[in-house]
Write a structure and sequence with these properties.
about 600 residues; alpha+beta; 6-stranded mixed sheet; elongated
Length: about 600
């Protein structure tokens, strides 16, 4: 069955909630306070079905003090039933709600002229109203003069709504779901409700809460009280989850693990307003609301590029819509352009944001290639550009003069190859006997992926030879180089005694590939020249035996524990623990009582 989310909007007491009740019999104002005051306070959710279509209604409040609630509901709208009392026309909240729709990109509107039974000059007032509405960026699908006392007018509207064709769900979009309610039901457990506007979710699927960083299993899915195995956008969805409901809150975001990161600062564009640099406004996106400090990047006649800085990190995405409030009223609205921290100078950032706004991602990638001389990553391509890894890689491969590492999701301007070549030349200038690999180079250069290092090394074959995964200077004998490295490493360990350098640091000092270095240490251990006491602790055998003899002499007058050994021999706690454990294991005359070692008493 297809589905569509239709929201209401309009001034207070223009008949939004009464209209929903007339369409499907649902009484939205069920709170005591709502019934006493005769106004909608909370969002209410109901539906209307035919054989092929399920309409999920989101009814929002129209009171000016409840604009934040209206905004959080409007983020789920695909189509809006905009309700105007034909006798009153556009009022303050009508206009504010229209601005929200504009800023959130909700263009498709079914215009409901309510209370027409009380109107004497319907044709003239309708014409005047339609003229006023031309000032707003909305697409009026159809106009319905209605009265809740005229069954035919309601039936005409119902039939039209059920004839609407839902927009196709983009299969490339990743599941992302803002919680708007969270509670616990007896026999069911934790239940979250929200509007599923992106992606899809299946029963028993593992998802991830971005705020508390916890994995969650979806135990069950309901769409308007019907159990389903899978839910796709666009739908109102209830999820039964295998977690304590106290761990989740309204506004939390559920998604897939590893897709989104949270940042305290983002960049965007806002429209049709003057934004003051340094002002603090309330930021609303999805069901999230928090203060944001505004920094103006560049102003234009009809828009402004800004940075927004939050008190806490937010997991936003490229093209997310947002609303800015000042003193509880709408100041502006805009679009997230740069959801991932990108440290660029102001003028450079303005150019970058302009390209992002145009959604010309080939030009965006070309810009990043030129700006990031040592490469840029595509791992966060969905959050940054709303592109899958496959889409991002295909775009990157269409660029000129680049190396694209499909495995590491990195893109390099080939000019970076010269920088890498110079680094490799520097290694061999320091040590002409060096044995290197793509892996060993990548470990030392955080910006260079292993595949890019392999590519560059292959371009240096006029200088280098290759054997068993190792590169070395041309004209050298590989076996002799290995033997030389074997001797040098052993001599260093002999010299360092009980304070040996960690293997990986030794490898770097000797310009030795890690794999080759591991093989040398393995060989030295097999030859019984070196003892391995821990993952990265290798000590020369004679140094270890001499230390054990010193331990035994000390035990004549002292007990030994970690603190004593650490201080007496001026070694790290890690080494002290390893040496004492070796003593425990290999010297039966020593007994350990609690954490103290002492000699056994002879009977």
């Amino acid at each position: 069955m297809h589905s569509i989310i239709i929201g209401t909007a309009g001034h207070i007491d223009h008949g939004k909630t009464s209209l929903i009740k007339a369409l499907n019999g649902f009484e939205g104002d069920d709170l005591k306070e709502e019934q006493e005051k005769g106004i909608t306070i909370n969002l209410s959710f109901s539906n209307l079905k035919s054989e092929n279509l399920n309409i999920a209604f989101i009814d929002v409040p129209g009171h000016e003090s409840l604009i934040k609630t209206m905004i959080s509901g409007a983020f789920g709208f695909r189509v809006c039933m905009f309700v105007i009392d034909i006798n009153e026309g556009l009022k303050a909240q009508s206009i504010e709600h229209l601005r929200v729709l504009e800023f959130l990109g909700v263009k498709d509107v079914v215009l409901i002229l309510s209370k027409v039974d009380l109107c004497k000059d319907l044709v003239q007032k309708q014409a005047e109203l339609l003229k006023e509405l031309k000032a707003f960026k909305i697409n009026i699908l159809k106009v319905f003069p209605t009265s809740i006392y005229d069954e035919q007018s309601i039936l005409n509207l119902k039939n039209y709504l059920l004839s609407l064709k839902p927009k196709e769900n983009d299969e490339n979009l990743i599941f992302r779901y803002y919680i708007d309610r969270i509670f616990s039901l007896k026999g069911i457990g934790t239940v979250a409700t929200g509007s599923l506007n992106e992606g899809k979710i299946s029963k028993n699927e593992k998802i991830f809460c971005l705020e508390n960083q916890k994995d969650i299993i979806v135990k069950n899915i309901q769409i308007h009280e019907e159990n389903v195995l899978e839910a796709k956008a666009y739908n109102r969805v209830a999820l039964s989850l295998n977690c304590d409901y106290h761990e989740l809150k309204k506004g939390y975001v559920l998604s897939k693990k590893g897709v989104f990161k949270s940042f305290k600062s983002i960049d965007g564009v806002v429209f049709n307003t003057e934004i003051k640099h340094g002002s603090i406004l309330e930021f609303c996106s999805g069901s999230k609301k928090l203060n944001a400090k505004i920094s103006v990047i560049k102003e234009f006649e009809d828009k402004t590029y800004i940075s927004l800085e939050f008190d806490k990190s937010l997991p936003l995405c490229f093209d997310d819509k947002f609303i800015l409030l000042e003193n509880g009223r709408i100041k502006s609205g805009g679009v997230v352009l740069n959801a991932v921290s990108e440290p660029l100078k102001k003028d450079i950032k303005a150019k970058y944001l302009a390209l992002l706004e145009q959604k010309d991602f080939k030009k965006v990638f070309e810009f990043l290639k030129q700006t990031h001389k040592l490469g840029f990553g595509l791992l966060s391509s969905y959050q940054r550009f709303k592109l899958t890894h496959e889409q991002a890689l295909n775009l990157a491969k269409s660029l000129d003069h680049v190396f694209v590492d499909e495995q590491a999701l990195n893109v390099y301007d080939l000019n970076a190859m010269q920088t890498l070549k110079e680094f490799i030349d520097f290694i061999f200038s320091k040590n002409p006997y060096a044995l290197i690999s793509p892996h060993s180079i990548a470990l030392r250069l955080s910006w260079a992926s292993e595949n890019f290092c392999a590519y560059v090394l292959k371009q240096m074959q006029e200088k280098l030879d290759f054997k068993d995964g190792i590169w070395f200077l041309k004209g050298q004998n590989f076996e002799k180089l290995q033997e030389k490295a074997h001797c040098e490493l052993y001599e260093i360990l002999k010299k360092e005694g009980i304070k040996p350098t960690a293997p990986y640091n030794l490898y770097e000092y000797l310009e030795l590939d890690r794999k080759n270095g591991d093989l040398i240490l393995k060989k030295l251990t097999k030859e019984n020249k070196v003892k391995r006491l821990a993952h990265n602790l290798f000590i020369e055998k004679n140094a270890l035996e001499n230390l054990m003899q010193e331990f035994l002499k000390l035990l004549q007058n002292h007990h030994l524990d970690v603190a004593f050994v650490k201080n007496h021999f001026q070694i790290s706690r890690k080494y002290a623990i390893a040496y004492l454990e070796y003593l425990d294991k290999n010297y039966p005359q020593v007994i350990k009582i609690e954490e103290k070692r002492m000699l056994k008493v002879k009977c």
